[in-house]
Design a protein that fits this description.
single chain, 139 residues, mainly beta, 9-stranded parallel beta sheet, 6-stranded parallel beta sheet, globular
């Protein structure tokens, strides 16, 4: 007798889907993962991951755990983790993320800022000043 294996969800709650053919204007706040395959105009704040599907157009500032872009985004992105732009993805705006992946064919038109939030908070100004500089001596 086989036991069924169930996958555990990593984010709380049910995922949210804005399907192809749908258009939404406004502000979206969610605790779960979000996938957009339609059109969205406004701001998005998610505690989970946000995926912009191939057919999606988001004119939006996005703040999320991680973001995957396969469609078009016009706005800024802030992510705790990584931003992945797939071969069909187009990002037109500034990004502030821990890790940035742009696959061949993906587009990023904007400025990027990458900072590992854990490393940045643990390194203080005093620890940077206390590290002596090593210079090679001419001989």
């Amino acid at each position: 007798m086989k036991k069924s294996k169930r996958r555990k969800r990593t984010s709380a709650g049910t995922s949210t889907l804005i399907s192809q053919g749908s258009q939404i204007d406004g502000t979206l706040n969610c605790d779960a993962d979000l996938r957009i395959d339609g059109k969205f105009n406004g701001s998005i704040e998610s505690q989970g991951n946000v995926t912009i599907g191939e057919s999606a157009i988001a004119r939006s500032n996005i703040s999320a755990k991680e973001v995957i872009i396969a469609g078009q985004v016009y706005g800024d992105i802030s992510a705790e983790g990584k931003l992945t732009i797939t071969p069909t993805g187009q990002m037109h705006g500034d990004v502030n993320v821990s890790s940035l992946i742009i696959m061949e064919g993906g587009v990023l038109n904007g400025a990027s800022h990458m900072e590992n939030s854990a490393a940045a908070s643990s390194v203080g100004k005093s620890s940077l000043e206390s590290v002596p500089m090593q210079r090679s001596e001419a001989g």
